[in-house]
Amino acid sequence: MSIYAEVNRRFHELYCGDDDRNEFAEILEKMSPEDQGLWRMEAEFEFSYRAGRGSRSGYAEDAERAIMERFADEEAARSERAA
User: Fold this and answer.
1) What SS3 state is found at 71?
2) Pick from 83, 71, 81: which is nearest to 2 by CA?
3) pLDDT computed for residue 54 by the predictor
4) Rounded to whole angstroms, how far apart are CA atoms 36 and 14?
5) I need a labelling partner for 64 at 20 to 30 A (CA). Which of 3, 8, 25, 75 fits?
6) Residue 69: C-alpha distances to residues 5, 23, 54 (Å)
7) Are 71 and 42 in contact (CB under 8 A)?
8) Residues 2-51: tens digit of each pLDDT
9) What share of the chain is helix, strand, coil (3-state, %, to 5)?
10) Residue 2 CB: number of other CB atoms within 10 A?
11) What distance, in Å, lies between the first and last C-alpha atoms of the chain?
């Protein structure tokens, strides 16, 4: 699972509808600078990937697959750092 997907999963676990709370900041500030940077790159990639695809059935799975293909080396390095 990409760091982008992990952060989104965690966001949905934390989100309570409080507009004064920034769940993304709460999640990201606990990450290393390297992981924060990877999350940003993956988020930017997903944003550009979404154009013309975002409303399609199965989009989330397609986007995750594309992210993992594009950032395979970076995700492998992240796994090694976590081990």
Assistant:
1) coil
2) 71
3) 81
4) 18
5) 25
6) 14, 27, 18
7) yes
8) 999 999 999 999 888 877 788 899 999 999 999 999 999 999 999 999 99
9) 70, 0, 30
10) 24
11) 15
